[in-house]
Give the backbone structure.
Amino acid sequence: MEGAPQFECPLWCVLCRSGKAWLSQLCQGAGEVLWLPNGLLSSKLPQLFDIHQVPKVFQEDGITSGYRHPRSSALDCILSSFQMNNETVNIWTHFLATWYFLWRFGMLWCSTDFVSDSYNWPLLVYMLLICLYPFTSSCAHTFSTMSPEARHICFFFDYGAISLYSLGCAITYGSYVMPDCLVNSWLHHHFVPFAVFNTLVCTSLSCYSRFLEMPFPHRSKMLRTLAFVYPFIFDNIPLFHRLTLCCEDGCNPSETLFVHCYHLIFAFLTCFLFASHLPERLAPGHFDYIGHSHQLFHICAVVGTHFQMEALLTDMASRRAWLAANTVVPSFLGTVGAMALAVVLNLAVIATFSAVLLQVHHCRAANRGGNVQPTAELKEQ
C-alpha cells in the first residue's frame, strides 16, 4: 500500500453515517410538523460547500464539508436548521437543552417561592442563566453564517452568556455549597463581587481571541480556553475545598458529593473536547455532520449542567437549616442585583468589541474600494 497510512474507524464511521441518515429524516420530519411547504427546504436553501470554497474565517479543523453559504440570509439560517449540515446538531443539542431547563425551571417555580423567600434567590438566578446560555449558543450557531462580522458578533454574545452562567454558578455555590469552615470568611463575603469581575475578564478575553483567529489561531484557542477555565476554577473553589477536606478526613462521601463529581467529570470532558478538536482531527471528513468535537462538547456541557443542577438542589435542601442558623440570608443585591449588573457590563463589553470589529471591517472595505462581493468571498482562502 503506497502513501501514508490512513486512519481507519469503521465502526465509528458507520455509526456516524447512520446517524447522519437518521438525522436527515428527523430534520425532514420536523419541517413537515412545522407545516413547511414540500420542497421548500431543498429549493430555498443555498447549496452546501466544501472547506476550500468558504472563507478561512468559517473553516473548522477537521471539518471538510457541509458548510453553509457564508452570506446566508436570516431566513436561510433558520431553514438550514432543518437541513443536514455541519451545524445542525450544534443548533439542536442546545436548543432542546434550553427547553429541558425551561421545563425544570417551570416545575421548580410551581413548588418553590422565588418571590418572597430570599433563600431561593440564588437558585432563581442560576435557573435563569442555565436557560440563557444554551439558547444563546443555539442562536449563535444558527445565524453565524450571515457574514464574517455576524459570525464574530454572534459568538461575542455566546461568550457573554457563558460568562453569565459562570456568575450563576458562583452565586449558588457561594450560597449553598460553601464548606462550613469557609462560611462567613473573607472569601465568602467577596465571592460574588469577584465572580462579577470574572465575567468581564472571561467575556473580554474570549471576544479578543476572535481578533487573533486568523493571524495566530493557536494563540487564539489557548486564550479562549483560558477565558473559560479561569472562572470555572474560581467558581468551584468551595467544591474543591469540600472534596479536599473529605479526602483528608477520610469521610464517606455523600450522594450529593458524588453528583458534584459527575459534574466535574463532564466539565473536564467539555474542556478537553473544546481544546482538542477530537475525533475529527484524526479522520478529517468522517465527522463533518455528526460526531465531531463541538457536538460532543455541547452534549457534555448540557449533561454536566444537569448534574450540577441536581447537586445544587440537594445541597440547597439539606443545608438550609444549618445555613439559616450560621449565616445571613442571600440579599437581593448579591443575587438578582449582581446578575443585572453583570448583564449590563457584559453587554457594554460586547458592544465595544462589536464596534471595533465593524470599524476594522469598514476600514478594510474602504481600502479595497468597496464591499467584498459574496462571489469573491467564496474564492477567498
